[in-house]
């Protein structure tokens, strides 16, 4: 474990004494020989920390990166923590899977080895697989925890270590803090050998069994298999060089749907991701190759998974010949309406149906719940929060029909408490097939929802901010006005609670603010009237219902024109993200679009001051 007081030479010596991977040893040795102190500091000084339900970093040498040594120590610490906190953990076992990225198989095998050494039974997927298979197996097998080695849609040089708790959901605080502490206590790597791990008597290859159960459990989502089989709908599919192709093919067969037309250059799992600069279906241009193939074959629908197949995206050609790429929120509204239909067909009482989305996602789901009568909840950003909320609702007797966030993550399979792009694809194509028979498009179905629940238009984007101090100054000015606490550090908000005064903006783009929630300082106020009011940070009656995190920035505003804005910092990238939506209950689209445009400009120029601060 490194310390700020230790010289870099001590950290180099420690790394070289611990690391048995020739490649990463050579990297540190070469930097030491070149006396590249700056690079060594970046790699060795600050150990990798648990973030979004586990670890994610670039694959290279050093305590701050993902490599064999950090995977071993993470697994040792996790195994010890789970054994101490989950009853019968070793007998219940751990589920381990991995994707197709470089080193994923070795990282998974090292994870298995660490858990075996700790006395665990291990349920293993030795071949490349999709992320949803791990949370499904944790829940189905009643395992103590699960680990999926994947970096999802990150660049090719990254990898990750995603952790699931005994309920099948991603870990959330304070579990991450406890696991991090345990990793520190088990930071000396004990066993580097992966030879024979798959043949160990305590290792159970569950691939065939769990995949059969996974697709069997998804059968309740099939509306009419015969009708699905009779459809004349054609559609193009891209796996984005990921693992999704065989699983997508099998879910379509489960639904009785015709097979996809594959984008040949992108259908095979390839860790180099050769045809995309960033393997994320959300990115501009990511679906261009699929659309081009569809154009040549007269096909009007494109569907996609991200590399680990936990996300889903779609685009549809419209009557005028243009392609409409559905936003994450639009797909969320489409899925929610489809799930509501299926639940009613299956005679699930509406009041026992539950749906959840994240606070940065569209409020259309909330409007739908208010009108239709199902249970609705919103959560903090990330599926670790939504999945745990859904797990609690499931325990309370609700049928957890749907959960989503705007970053094209959808949970439709009630036995997978995480994003699942494969079952999302089955439900989406099934809906498209039904609409195709009626001579309608999926976009027409979206229009039906706008007619019922009001029009929602959004603009989600970000600016790159590589200077954390500059980012904090931006948020501090939003909170405190031009007169800010000294230094503007996030930590100052706790130290100055009794003396500082909050001076949030009175309006955004000229539209009066009606609601404020600041999860950094710990403040929430409804029915806001702050035209002449200055609020002390210490006024405890304004404590928010969501958990407060003084180490990250997140502020939400609502305005009296139906606008909602959330600004936050990313936990994994140097980004200041903002999510803006305007609702028109009367379906006045022109007015909503005008308001959105005005507010978007205000966010960038008045709040973030992007031009003034030199941010892209």
UniProtKB/TrEMBL annotation:
Cofactor: Mg(2+)
Stored PROSITE patterns: PGM_PMM
Domain Alpha-D-phosphohexomutase alpha/beta/alpha residues, every copy: 49-188, 213-317, 328-453
Species, as recorded: Linderina pennispora
Entry GO terms, CC: cytoplasm; nucleus
Superkingdom, natural source: Eukaryota
Record has Signal as a keyword: no
Pfam families listed in its UniProt record: PGM_PMM_I, PGM_PMM_II, PGM_PMM_III
Name by which UniProt lists this protein: Phosphoglucomutase, first 3 domain-containing protein
BP terms from Gene Ontology: glucose metabolic process; purine ribonucleoside salvage
An annotated Gene Ontology molecular function: magnesium ion binding
Annotated localization: Cytoplasm
